[in-house]
Structures are given as C-alpha cells and as structure tokens.
From TrEMBL:
<dbReference type="InterPro" id="IPR002563">
    <property type="entry name" value="Flavin_Rdtase-like_dom"/>
</dbReference>
<dbReference type="InterPro" id="IPR012349">
    <property type="entry name" value="Split_barrel_FMN-bd"/>
</dbReference>
<dbReference type="Pfam" id="PF01613">
    <property type="entry name" value="Flavin_Reduct"/>
</dbReference>
<feature type="domain" description="Flavin reductase like">
    <location>
        <begin position="23"/>
        <end position="170"/>
    </location>
</feature>
<protein>
    <recommendedName>
        <fullName>Flavin reductase like domain-containing protein</fullName>
    </recommendedName>
</protein>
Length: 172
C-alpha cells in the first residue's frame, strides 16, 4: 500500500482550469434557495450569489441550469434565500446533491411555508424574493438570475457556513 501526499486521481496542477481555481479561492457564504410548496418543493445550495442594496434590493445568483430549483423558481416566480450556519453542513450537502438524503433533503429539517416558498425553521436570516424574468440568462456553465427582495428577516449573527476551495471552512 502506498501513501500519497495528494489525491492520486487529481488533475495535475499544470492541467487544472485556472479560472475554476480562481473562483474556488473567492469563496463565500452558503445560502439555501428554496421554492414551491408541498411535494412540488425544490431547493439548491448556492454560494455564488451577491446582495445588492437599494430600493428595491436585489439578490443575484448563479444557479445550476438543470436544477429543480431553477425550474420551480421560474414556475412560481418566488423563492426563499436563507443563509446557512456552520451547523448546517449536512443540510447544505443534501441540497447540493453531494450527500444522500433518504426521502429527500426536505426531510432533514423542519420547514415553514411562507408566501415565497419553504423556509428551514432553523434559518434565522432569510429573504423572500420574486424573480425578475427579464434577467435570467446563461453565464458560463450556470444560469444567472436576479431576484427582487420583498421581505427580509435578519436573525442572530451565527457562525456562517463558508465554502472555499471545495470544502467548508469556519471563520476564526
């Protein structure tokens, strides 16, 4: 048995996509976008987003083009954007599709249905948003969406869940 200092199947350093490496080093807070109701709910973990203040405020996010969340957001026109805390790694992984969730990821938390979509009860900071359909377009391997903020709740300032270079990091 050989012990490797690096993953034996990693792409060699010189062959890695430099733009993806740059994006990975930007990092960011992890949010959970949810939309729909009942069995028609969908959600997606999103760390590529920004919040623009103004009147009205907006959130711009990069969503996976084949995600159920994007479909549901376009169907309903509304969603909940919730910030996840360090305690929410399992929930984030399930909605990212990187961890099994028997019965679906919505079984991993308690939910409250809002007029914008489902909100994880444990998510203390969240926004109810409405899609601006004119802003939806493909950007690289993602779909850029812009949503108008209609409602904001800012809860306790928990330790955020931060994703950088393919893993979660806890700010010190």
């Amino acid at each position: 048995m050989t012990i490797h200092t690096e993953h034996p199947f990693d792409t060699p350093e010189d062959d890695r996509d430099q733009l993806r490496r740059l994006r990975g080093r930007v990092g960011g807070a992890v949010s959970l976008w949810t939309a729909g109701e009942g069995i028609e709910r969908a959600g997606l973990t999103v760390s590529s987003f920004l919040v623009a203040t103004g009147d009205p405020g907006r959130v711009v996010g990069l969503l996976h083009p084949d995600s159920d969340l994007l479909d549901r957001l376009q169907e309903t026109g509304t969603a909940v954007v919730a910030l996840l805390g360090a305690r929410d790694e399992r929930l984030a992984d399930a909605f990212a599709g990187t961890m099994p969730a028997p019965g679906g990821p919505f079984r991993l938390a308690e939910w409250e249905q809002t007029e914008w979509g489902p909100r994880a009860v444990g998510a203390q900071t969240w926004a109810g948003v409405r899609l601006d359909p004119a802003t939806v377009h493909e950007v690289g391997w993602s779909v850029l969406v812009e949503v108008v903020v209609e409602h904001v709740v800012v809860g306790a300032d928990d330790t955020p869940l931060v994703h950088r270079r393919g893993r979660y990091q806890r700010p010190s």
